[in-house]
Structure formats: C-alpha cells, structure tokens
Amino acid sequence: MKDYLNYNVEDLAQDDFFILWVLSTNISAETFWQNWLERHPYKRNDLEAARKLVLKATDLPTPDLSEERIHSIKESVFSRIERLENPSGPRLSWGFRSYWSMAAAVAGILLVAGWYMQKEQALSPMELSPFATAVVEEITTKEVNNESQRAMLVNLPDGSSVTLSKGSRLTYPSQFGADSREITLSGEAFFEVAKDPQKPFYVFAQRLTTKVLGTSFNVRAYQDDDEVSVSVKTGRVSVFQAEGTEAQKPKGGTELEGLVLHPDQEARFVNKEIKLVALPAKREPKAVDIPEELRQMDFDYVETPITEIFKELEKAYQVRFVYDYTVMSKCPITAQLTGEPFQKKLHLLCKAVGAKYSEQNGIITITGDGCE
C-alpha cells in the first residue's frame, strides 16, 4: 500500500485511487479514505484541497487542438504520472482508465500549464494562466513555524487570531471551506475565534479535536508530551478524541459534541481518556512566552484612554503600536473586547475614534485626527 502520509496536495490529486474516491461511489475507496482520515485528522486540509483540485479539473477549458496533438499531450502526461507512481503500490486495472484521464487533467494544471505553454506554445498563456493561478490560490495550505524565542501573532483568513508559542507549528488553508474552519496545531497556542455559528472552528491537535463557534481558549499539544490539554477563557468549546464517534459526524452545524467546556474549565487527554478539571483562580503559566495578560485579562474598558489600551494590547500580543500620542491621548473608550480576535479589537477601537490602522511585521501604525 502506498504511503499517503508523505503525499502532498498535488500527489493526492494525481493518485488514481484518490480520484476514484472523489468522483465515484466506490465502497472500497470510501471505506479506505474515511478510515485513513480518522487515523490522520491533521491531513484533512490536504485532502480537501486535493479534492477541490480534482473537481476543478473537470471544468478545464477545452483547447482547439488536432486529434494528433491531443493524443501527444495525453501520452506525455500519462508518462509523467507513471514515472511519479510508487513502484510498490497497487497496480491499476483497465477499469480505472477514466480516472487516469482525470489525473491527466490535474497534471495538466500542475505540470503542463506552465511547462507546456512555454515549450509547446499550444495554449495561449492569457487563456490558461488565470485559471491555473485561481486553482493554486484556492488550494494553498499555509504553515507557520514559530522558530523565534517569543510568541508569534498569526491572523487567520476569517479574522480569528492565534498567539503561537515558540517551537510550535500551525497549518491552515488560505481560505476556509463553506461549512467549517479547520486548522492543525503542533505545540501550544491561544486562540481568539471570530464568531460564525454556521462555520464551526476545528483545531486538530495530536489525538484531540476541539470544536468552537466563536470563543477564546488555549490548546497545548506537543508531540513528545503524553498529555493534551484545552482550557477555556470565554464562551464554550467541545473536545473529543480524533478517533472517537464524534469525529465521524459531518462537519458544520451548531451542536457541540463530546465534552463541553465552559470558562475556567480545562480538559486533559491522558491514556485515551478525557478528564475535566476546574482551573484555579491563580495558576502557573504553561508556555511562558504566551503572556498571561492575554489568557487571563479582561479587555473591558470604561472611559479608558485609548493610549492605555494600546499599551495593554502591546503587552498581551507582543506587538508594537506607532501613533501620535498628543493626538490619541484625549480619546476615551468604553467597550467590551474580551474574547474578540486581535484584528476585531483594532477595528472597533479605530472605528470608535475615527482612526485607521495598518499592520506590518508586528508593528501597528495608527493614523487619525484624534477626538478634539
């Protein structure tokens, strides 16, 4: 059997057995891939991206080419795919030939789109290039590795914010799907999730899956640790085993399966069991580089100068604000921002005082006329 764990998105999209699963109702393929996904939930984003690519290939534009030229292109692509095939993998029967054609179409996007247009000049770059570019942008999976010595702020496509501890890794798609928002974590991170009840937010961390609709919480899941933990600051989250029955349910929906956690509660997964514990009022920090201000402080203000709020945000998110103090110091703010993602906090603050902000490399620049 092929080692699909080492397959990237492009490899999966060109694999005959994967294409069979996407385009047919074959029971063997359905059983295999569902079981494989249950064992490796952190590969869900790659499978979804590859699935989209296969489906997108069915909409490829048909070029105006001679039969001889089409035959030549097909043979070239088939040869390329065969060279990429795992020699020890299962042999393909002739009944799968139509799925090889689909693999050829996928390869046409990934391999031929650029190479063939330049070498063979059979397709106009103006006709195919935007299409190929759109597909690549749609399926891009981003991976952030925090190799620094301090926590790193990561803003997700939906507006959620993640404070990623040093030595941790976060994987997420460039754009989330229609029914859910799914990311993979190795290490520790504090999440502030943008509210969207119709698109639940999933965190796959080692053997534990966390589902939320919009809240703030912390996940600790290092590969070498025997324990995986999830603690809640605001809202509610549900946790369940990646191999459990809850993980097999369709994604989407507002129901919280498994063990539901409330503020100041923590779930710990040890020896294949999930235990619920109440967090003490004062507790020692786990990842010392994630500021405790972020995990414990309430970002609620009554007539507080916005400059003071900027200082608190700098300390909590480890960013730097640049602004004109004489202009902004006279702007009082009354707002409840606890649990809101970082960008939502900035948006509401700037809207309240008629200012604008820009963000680059951890530096937040605020511009505006002030409140006089």
Automatic annotation (TrEMBL):
Keywords: Membrane, Transmembrane, Transmembrane helix. InterPro entries: FecR, FecR_C, Ferrdict_sens_TM. The keyword Transmembrane helix applies. The chain crosses the membrane at residues 99-117. Residues 150-237 form the FecR protein domain. Residues 301-366 form the Protein FecR C-terminal domain. GO terms for molecular function: sigma factor antagonist activity. The keyword Membrane applies. This is Uncharacterized protein DUF4974. It comes from Dyadobacter jejuensis.
